[in-house]
């Protein structure tokens, strides 16, 4: 029994389709934010480079000293934004404050190469800064000096711009994601509609309704499922039909011998002589044996209507074994039972069913062939498959009876002991092996029943 899943197929599809979309949306937002910060940082670096070089040009060496030409207007430009003001510092030697509006932290990896700006990040008064440092050489060759110019800019405004940029990107993407989710849900609902219709058809069927399910418009996967269900329904219908036929045949065929047994027992009870009782009991025994044979044949017929379990077997060896098993009975009946044909012939077949078919053919030949006749089992390989035949040189059949040989409960003779199912079983076994059974009148007399096995 298959345990039901906690999630329906529709919910599982929605989960596997929408969850990756949500993850990709969040990952895309994070990457977009990182890219936006990267581009903002590049813009800040360009601005800081221009500012630090402009500030360095305002510091001019004069002899062994410095002339700082930094007018008030230039200072106001640097400090014009109070929310995101630019911090600057001039020191010489590096770290010894000369000029600026803020003491800035030194670069993390000194010394610096003169003339090459170095960028680094730091914290100042609890706010993040992006700082550039530029060292400038001055002084005489005998007494070189280093001037360090540092300019820092806060990142709060740039981070806010990056967040706004990402938000402006993600909001439309979110709207598109919602629209896509609705389309996915509608597509899944439409795609699963054939399964819903199939479920409704199965739920509305009665127990005895085993006709095929009709579904003309359906995806290939659902169509394959419907074909598999129809195949199963067909097998169940055939099984039910076989069961009904078996019950009807058993009820019909057992009614007469059982009624005869009851009447013979009643007559035996009224007999006063031992000879009369013995005669009635003999008839009771004959009727019981016929009933037992009938039940055995009915059960064999029911078994042969199931699928044959075909495995590699040597048909010639099997035929010789069956011939040896029936030889004592043939000798007791005064008949010659032999084998002719291939020494070995391997086929795919059900050994139990083929043994039953051979036993039925030999039993029929022994019952209806006169004493002194000969019966021959033959195994040969033909162009259309393997051939298994039983020949006898008895009286054969009338031409009008040839068409009825394999019908159920048809008997060509009224001799006691038969029930008309032996050859029907043979035909069913041949069909289960992909072939058929045929009957042929032999010359000058006799009968051949041959099974073609594929």
From TrEMBL:
Its EC number is 2.7.13.3. It is found in: Membrane. Coiled coil: none annotated. One of its GO terms (molecular function) is phosphorelay sensor kinase activity. The keyword Nucleotide-binding does not apply. Keywords: Kinase, Membrane, Phosphoprotein, Transferase, Transmembrane, Transmembrane helix. Residues 249-454 form the Histidine kinase domain. GO terms for cellular component: plasma membrane. Pfam families: 2CSK_N, HATPase_c, HisKA. It is an enzyme of class 2 (transferase). The keyword Membrane applies. This is histidine kinase. It catalyses: ATP + protein L-histidine = ADP + protein N-phospho-L-histidine. The chain crosses the membrane at residues 169-188.
């Amino acid at each position: 029994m298959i345990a039901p899943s906690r999630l329906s197929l529709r919910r599982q599809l929605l989960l596997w389709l929408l969850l990756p979309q949500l993850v990709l949306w969040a990952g895309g937002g994070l990457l977009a934010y990182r890219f936006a910060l990267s581009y903002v940082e590049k813009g800040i670096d360009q601005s800081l480079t221009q500012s630090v070089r402009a500030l360095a040009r305002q510091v001019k060496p004069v002899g062994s000293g410095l002339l700082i030409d930094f007018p008030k207007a230039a200072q106001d430009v640097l400090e014009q934004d109070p929310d995101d003001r630019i911090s600057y510092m001039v020191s010489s030697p590096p770290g010894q404050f000369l000029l600026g509006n803020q003491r800035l932290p030194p670069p993390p990896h000194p010394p610096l190469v003169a003339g090459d700006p170095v960028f680094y990040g730091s914290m100042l008064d609890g706010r993040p800064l992006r700082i550039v440092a530029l060292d400038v050489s001055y002084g005489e060759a005998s007494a070189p000096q280093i001037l360090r110019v540092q300019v820092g800019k806060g990142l709060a405004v740039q981070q806010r711009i990056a967040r706004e940029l990402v938000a402006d990107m993600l909001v439309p993407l979110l709207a598109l994601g919602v629209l896509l989710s609705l389309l996915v849900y509608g597509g899944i609902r439409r795609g699963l509609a054939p399964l819903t219709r199939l479920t409704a058809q199965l739920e509305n069927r009665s127990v005895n309704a085993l006709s095929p399910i009709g579904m003309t418009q359906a995806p290939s996967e659902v169509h394959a499922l419907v074909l598999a269900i129809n195949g199963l329904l067909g097998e169940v219908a055939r099984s039910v039909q076989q069961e009904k036929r078996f019950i009807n045949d058993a009820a019909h065929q057992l009614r007469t011998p059982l009624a005869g047994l009851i009447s013979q027992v009643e007559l035996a009870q009224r007999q006063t002589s031992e000879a009369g009782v013995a005669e009635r009991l003999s008839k009771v025994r004959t009727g019981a044996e016929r009933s037992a044979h009938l039940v055995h044949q009915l059960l064999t017929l029911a078994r042969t209507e199931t699928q044959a379990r075909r495995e590699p077997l040597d048909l010639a060896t099997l035929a010789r074994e069956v011939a040896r098993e029936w030889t004592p009975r043939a000798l007791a009946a005064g008949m010659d039972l032999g084998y002719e044909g291939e020494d070995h012939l391997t086929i795919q077949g059900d050994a139990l069913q083929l043994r039953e078919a051979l036993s039925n053919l030999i039993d029929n030949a022994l019952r209806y062939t006169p004493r002194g006749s000969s019966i021959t089992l033959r195994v040969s390989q033909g162009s259309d498959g393997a051939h298994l035949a039983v020949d006898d040189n008895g009286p054969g059949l009338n031409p009008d009876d040839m068409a009825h040989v394999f019908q159920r409960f048809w008997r060509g003779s009224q001799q006691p002991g038969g029930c008309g199912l032996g050859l029907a079983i043979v035909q069913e076994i041949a069909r289960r092996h992909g072939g058929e059974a045929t009957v042929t009148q032999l010359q000058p007399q006799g009968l051949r029943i041959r099974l073609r096995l594929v």
